Amino acid sequence: MRPSSRTAMDESLSALEELLDASPYTVAFTGAGVSEESGIPTFRGREGIWKEFPPALYGNLPGLALAFLARPRRVAALASGVLGTLLRAEPNPCHLALARLEMEGRLHAVITQNIDGLHQAAGSRRVIELHGNAFRLRCTRCGARVEVQRERALAVLEGLREAMTRRRLLEALRRYAEPCMRCGGRTRPDVVLFGEGLPAGELNQALEEAGRCRLMLVLGTSGVVYPAAMVPRLALETGARLVVVDPARTALSSRAHLHIPAPAGSFFAAWLEDR
Ligand SMILES: [Zn+2]
């Protein structure tokens, strides 16, 4: 690293430390940029799998149902691509640093827009998932939620890769979304698809945390996708300070107390190294 950028990094690191020390209640708000550094392509970037499967066509239930009838092999390729990517992903230094801050009592919650469960995998305990979790199912009748074990997800991935017909695809999908153990109702992935509302319980919790915090770390998110974008805005309106870590200028960086123009993963790698 060049001396000048090393100095800039050192300054950012000590500025963050000062803000953390001064705040009695801190929460993090994370988005796709944080997952991207673990190898999960973003919708917006139209990278990886989303170049081949535009979210506008495949990111919602009606679109998927239509594709299931007309092009089952495409749906099988999409489902195995998404599931394979999620199963391969591992926490990066940003996830690890947030878990460490929570353990040290300096971070009180993580509010995330990501569905990959990587914050929990890194050791974070208080995680509010605004867009659900891809490794959890929800009963469409009684609302019960159940985790999908990794072994089952791997078996389903195998089935999807071999699904060349609609019948085989349906079998693989049914193996993933087994009927509800409580009421026998149909289940679906507990994630928010395009055009669907956010889970009210999680959104309320997130807004409560935003109203309560004195410092919010905004990591890897442009802060423009509503209603999730209400969270940092409420924090600002109730007088919290914002730290934005994002390589680009965002809608929030101009209102932030501190903008660190770096990818969250590499910034927190330096933070972890510095300790
Ligand atoms: Zn049920």
In short:
The chain has 275 residues and is of the alpha/beta class.
Please explain how this structure is put together:
By secondary structure, this protein is an alpha/beta fold. The protein folds into two domains: 1-39 and 90-131 and 197-275, TPP-binding domain (Rossmann fold, 3-Layer(aba) Sandwich); 41-88 and 138-191, no CATH class. The protein has 13 helices and nine strands. The strands form two sheets. Strands 3-2-1-7-8-9 form a six-stranded parallel β-sheet, with helices on both faces. The two termini are 18 Å apart. 39% of the residues are buried. The mean pLDDT is 92. The structure holds zinc ion. Zinc ion binds next to loops. Zinc ion (ZN) is lined by residues 139, 141-142, 144, 180, 182-183, 185.
Show the helix and strand layout.
Elements: H1 3-22, E1 26-30, H2 32-36, H3 49-52, H4 55-58, H5 61-70, H6 72-88, H7 93-103, E2 109-112, H8 118-122, E3 127-129, E4 132-139, E5 145-147, H9 150-161, H10 166-176, E6 187-191, H11 200-212, E7 215-219, H12 230-237, E8 241-245, E9 258-260, H13 264-273
Parallel strand pairs: 1-2, 1-7, 2-3, 7-8, 8-9
Antiparallel strand pairs: 4-5, 4-6
Helix pairs in contact: 5-6, 6-9, 7-13, 9-10, 11-12
Bound molecules: zinc ion.
Zinc ion (ZN) binds at residues 139, 141-142, 144, 180, 182-183, 185.
